[in-house]
Amino acid sequence: MLIPFIISVSAAIVGAHIAADELAYTYSKGAKGIGDYLPKWWAKPLITCPTCMASVWGFTACFVFGIQVWEWPLAVFGIAFVNTLFNKWAQ
């Protein structure tokens, strides 16, 4: 039950990261990425670093989908690991 959850949340997170970067490149004049629009301390865990995004979005997904409390650390660390693999593959 936990492995499909980890893979699907990781795919959504990496997809959001890539889409936000592409939108920033496409619709900005001279900006290098979405991080130019948000403060660095805010942008890194929300959209610019897929590995860091696991801490925020993984925890939120665990809460929304009703994952047991004792499974949260496993899910978040698993999401961070799979995000790293997906990000290397997607870029």
Topology diagram in text:
Elements: H1 2-27, H2 40-48, H3 50-65, H4 72-90
Notes on the structure:
With 91 residues, the chain is an all-alpha fold. The protein has one domain (2-90). The chain is 77% helix and 0% strand. It contains four helices and no strands. It has helices at 2-27, 40-48, 50-65, 72-90. Helix 2 packs across helix 3 and helix 3 packs across helix 4. It is elongated. The relative contact order is 0.19. The mean pLDDT is 82.
Features:
about 0% strand; mainly alpha; about 90 residues
Short description:
The protein is mostly helical and 91 residues long.
Nearest-integer average pLDDT: 82
| Overall morphology | elongated
Main β-sheet: number of strands, strand sense, barrel status? none
Order of helices and strands: HHHH
Rg (C-alpha, Å): 14 Å
Uncertain residue segments: none
Return the structural class. Answer: mainly alpha
First CA to last CA: what distance? 28 Å
How many helical stretches? Answer: 4
- How many structural units, i.e. domains? 1
Instruction: Please report the total strand number as a whole number.
Output: 0
Strand content: under 5%
